[in-house]
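In practice, a research group might receive sequence data for several interacting partners and want a quick structural hypothesis before committing to experiments. The following worked case mirrors that situation: the sequences arrive first, and a predicted assembly follows.
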Amino acid sequence: DTEVTQTPKHLVMGMTNKKSLKCEQHMGHRAMYWYKQKAKKPPELMFVYSYEKLSINESVPSRFSPECPNSSLLNLHLHALQPEDSALYLCASSQEYGQGGEKLFFGSGTQLSVL
Amino acid sequence: AQSVTQPDIHITVSEGASLELRCNYSYGATPYLFWYVQSPGQGLQLLLKYFSGDTLVQGIKGFEAEFKRSQSSFNLRKPSVHWSDAAEYFCAVRGGGADGLTFGKGTHLIIQP
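A structural hypothesis for the assembly, expressed as tokens:
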């Protein structure tokens, strides 16, 4: 199994809603990532978890709250989002974090629209 | 700080023709370099990577890339493109340690019949 599975594929939410994005991998990877990608732009790193601990938070607003309940799962909790947060949210995993040359496996993403 | 430049926003190539996508990087030492491909509404798939050894790297789907230190370049090539190669291509660089992956702005590849 070389897949990273993200659910849901599409999400529409209001600015007062609370929702969660989910990501799962069964490759035994110990590093998991959240990226945000606006239309026609490259992915931007949001968070990195290494061995279930938050290693990097790229100054992401607190309305985005990541969680890594175990080594296979990664969640992104959303609350009080703004319309400019509408984007494709990509999850990725790699065997380790910090070794430089490791390959990232990406999920297909959740297309989020905030109304 | 590391950075990547992809000078071409769009490239149009006829099916069967050869392809070269340009990528220039900035990093103080030898970086880790990657090419990823993204189809519409999908995640990214790694085509190939370089971090040491032979400067000509072979990847999946018939792609190759050449690392040229003197030009700070890592251009992606394919001898004969197929309509299914139409996608967005991202070059990415990563330094050592805890540096994250930095993506270029991408090149949108259009294949003409």
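Before designing any experiment, note the following. Chain A has a mean pLDDT of 93. DSSP finds no helices and eleven strands in chain A.
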